[in-house]
Every structure is written in structure tokens, then in C-alpha cells.
Specification:
CATH class of the largest domain: Alpha Beta
Radius of gyration: 20 Å
Helix content: 25-40%
Largest sheet: 6 strands, parallel
Distance between the termini: 56 Å
Shape: globular
Strand content: 15-25%
Bound molecules: guanine
């Protein structure tokens, strides 16, 4: 039977702000006790426009939450050996709690070797295999920003996940795959029955249409249409693609992986783009940095 459900927006901006404010109070308490405050070191190689924007947003958020941050900028032509030595220094630096090396790196540098060089105790991006392995085993670990942010959003809105069918579209190491593991974990949010869909999935439309929760993380604008979404589903849109739009001053519009206008009326909860998952990634990074400080002291 068809019914009209009341749709609620999952407001990442609001939840992210709430988390930052709570962290700010935690930092103020540390300061009052004369204790060390969290310190994030961000490494940016070259002048990639998107990376510049992301790193600037991370540094700004640190300031808003009362964290210390250091931005280390290196030339596009920097050698891998030099970058490894910068990381070794940050690993040794007792004042630094969290290290992030913004990706992508220039072609001549191996992402893998760089990630492996970061001390797992300071790997607030959760990219090191030690942290990925712990996450898979359900041990305390650093969970990468996007899946962690989505879990925080589900938790904030007290979304029921146990026993639900979840479809995750996209199997990237940073979003889809960890998301599928977290949603199937024996914890809250979790306990879902998860189908991880990808470019070789035959009946993707049917799988999505039978799912209570859809996480779209494939990077194809407006891929998820209304006929792929069950009435009352929870839809999480991770996509954020720049598409040309002459009506905008910037010349582009940001599009999610979900056709929001037609999908939203069918949902119980849905994330907007922008203002959904994006701001949550920053909140998750700050939470990880605070946790790194706590674990080390
Ligand atoms: N590039 C795109 N997303 C991320 C992220 O979450 N962390 C890092 N270090 N680089 C990225």
C-alpha cells in the first residue's frame, strides 16, 4: 500500500556544529586543568584546488573547536624520501596527536608507502592497515572520516539499523567497503544485512528498491532515482560532483549521487548535498584527533 511518509533531513551542518561545540567544551576543560590540547598536523603537497579547499576547512574547524593545528605545505616536486622524513618527524613530535596527509599525492609518490609510514596511533584518517584491520575486527580504531561521519549522523538521529536491509553502492577503500563493514557490525549503528553493490552488480536497482537503508557512494551525479527507493527508506548521499552550471557564479553546481528532488518525498530520512555527509567528515576527523590525544595521554 502506498502511504505518504514524513521525510526528515539529516542535517550534517547542524550535527557537525553540535559535535564541534561539544569538543570545544572538552578542550576548555583540558585547558582549565592545565593539560595538553589536541594538535592536528596536516600535510599538503602541491596546489590541487580541491585539496587546498579540504585542508583549509579542516584547519578552520580545528580553530573553531579550540584545537591546535599545523599546516605543512610541500612543493609538488617534493621527493617521496623528503615526505617520509617529514612524517617521521611528526611521528616523533610529542606535541602532535594526529597526522593527515591530504590525498591524492603527486604521481611520483606512493600513497601506500606514505600511509604505512604514519604511526597508527596518530593516523586520524584511519587509512593505515592497522586501523583498517582493527575496524574490521571491531576493535577500537580510527575509522576514516566519511564512514565515521555517517555513523555519527545515524546515531544522532537515533535511526534504527538492527535487522535492516542496507545497500551500499560503491566499494572504495575509503567509503563503500568500510561502510559495509560498519553497518554489518554487531553494534549500534549496525546489525544490518548489507549488500555491497558495485559496477558489476547485475540487479542493483532491485537490491536498492528492497533496502531500508541506501548509502550512495559511487560518484555518479543523480544515479539513485525514485524508482530505486522503497517508501520510508533512509538515504545517505556521499556523492559530491561538480557539474557545469552557467546560472551559478562559480560556473558549477554540486550534485550528489541521489536525485534529491524525486527521491526525498519517498524517504523517512535523507541527507542533502551539500550540507549532509560533507560537514560530518570534518566532525569525525576532529573526534578522531581528540581520541588520539586521549589514548596517548
Ligand atoms: N582526500 C579526499 N578525502 C580525504 C580524506 O578524508 N583524507 C585525506 N588525507 N585525503 C583525502
Amino acid at each position: 500500500m502506498n502511504y505518504l511518509c514524513t521525510m526528515q533531513i539529516l542535517d550534517g551542518q547542524l550535527v557537525s556544529r553540535t559535535i564541534k561545540e561539544s569538543l570545544k567544551l572538552d578542550v576548555a576543560a583540558l585547558v582549565a586543568d592545565g593539560k595538553k590540547i589536541p594538535h592536528l598536523a596536516a600535510v599538503l603537497v602541491g596546489n590541487n584546488g580541491a585539496s587546498e579547499t579540504y585542508v583549509a576547512a579542516k584547519v578552520k574547524a580545528c580553530g573553531e573547536a579550540g584545537f591546535k593545528s599545523t599546516l605543512l605545505r610541500l612543493e609538488e616536486s617534493v621527493s617521496e624520501a623528503r615526505l617520509l622524513s617529514v612524517i617521521a618527524d611528526l611521528n616523533k613530535d610529542l606535541d602532535v596527536d594526529g597526522i593527515l596527509v591530504q590525498l591524492p599525492l603527486p604521481k611520483h609518490i606512493s600513497d601506500e608507502r606514505i600511509i604505512l609510514a604514519i604511526d597508527p596511533a596518530k593516523d586520524v584518517d584511519g587509512f593505515h592497515p592497522v586501523n583498517v584491520g582493527k575496524m574490521v575486527l571491531g576493535s577500537p580504531s580510527f575509522i576514516s572520516a566519511t564512514p565515521h561521519g555517517i555513523m555519527l549522523l545515524l546515531e544522532y538521529y537515533k535511526i534504527q539499523t538492527a535487522g535492516k536491509q542496507a545497500a551500499v553502492i560503491g566499494r572504495s577503500n575509503v567509503v563503500g567497503r568500510p561502510m559495509s563493514i560498519l553497518l554489518s557490525a554487531n553494534s549500534y549503528p549496525g546489525n544490518c544485512t548489507v549488500t555491497l553493490c558495485h559496477s558489476h552488480t547485475h540487479n542493483l536497482k532491485e537490491i536498492c528498491a528492497a533496502s531500508d537503508i541506501i548509502v550512495a557512494a559511487l560518484g555518479k551525479p543523480e544515479f539513485v532515482r525514485a524508482d530505486m527507493v522503497k517508501e520510508g527508506a533512509v538515504v545517505i548521499d556521499v556523492g559530491i560532483t561538480r557539474v557545469p552550471d552557467s546560472s551559478k557564479k562559480s560556473g558549477f553546481a554540486l550534485k550528489g549521487d541521489v536525485a534529491f528532488a524525486e527521491v526525498a518525498p519517498r524517504c523517512s530520512f535523507i541527507t542533502p548535498v551539500p550540507g549532509g555527509v560533507g560537514p560530518m567528515t570534518i566532525a569525525a576527523l576532529l573526534k578522531n584527533t581528540f581520541t588520539a590525544l586521549k589514548r596517548r595521554h
